[in-house]
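Batch job 17 of 40 flagged for manual review because the log was empty.
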Amino acid sequence: MENISELAKMIDHSLLQPAMTDKEILQGCELAKYYQVAAVCIKPYAIPQVLNYLSGSGLITCAVIGFPHGNSSIRVKEYETEEACKDGAKEIDMVVNIGKVLGKNWDYLIEEIGRVTAVTREYQAGLKVIFENDFLYEDQFKIRLCEICTELRVNFVKTSTGYGFVKGPDGKYSYRGATEHDLILMRAHSGPKVQIKAAGGIRTLDELLWAKSLGATRIGASATEVIMDEAWKRFGNGKTHDSFKPGFANDNY
């Protein structure tokens, strides 16, 4: 029997869709508070308003950096991280420079991750490093990133952004996100103090439980409502969550 509150605290509720309005961000925060998830994962500009929305809830405000392609310079990522932390973010999800990974420029990546880590430590914020595994076609890339993140003592390694669509030879875009192979690999090659965040394609309770069974302690999801409603049905011992749900479509927002 799973503990529903513990399952909720595995979820970073994702509010990262590019066209999301301020009204939709507020609605997402209300949903996250209702289910008492771990964090709300947002674009940096929204930090002040989200802190206001989440006031007193106990939820973490998490901002993304270099999102979603990781191509900003080290200096820009460092600055963006500092600004997010100054604004009040308590967790940072930073995308590595994917081209540098594929080029095996490990010194660059050690400097990049190290400098962002230093900023988060200064502000007592957690750091999750996003690999975007769909682009990393050989295990050696992921293994070396896990080793670097362990050496630098980051808090989490994360599989994906949820937005890293790969263009195939036919010109069509595809995306896998979190996979069994990658979660097992990342857990095996990360130090015991480095946690795993699974993101990309996790939309059901069974998929959350699957990620948990493979060593993930946090997931990124926009399907929080579906996941948590199913958790209450399955593990609520006949009980349901409070019958009140926020008016997610209410024009009062």
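Reviewer: the log was empty due to a logging misconfiguration, but the result itself is present. Residues 247-253 have pLDDT under 50 and may be disordered. Unflagging and moving on to job 18.
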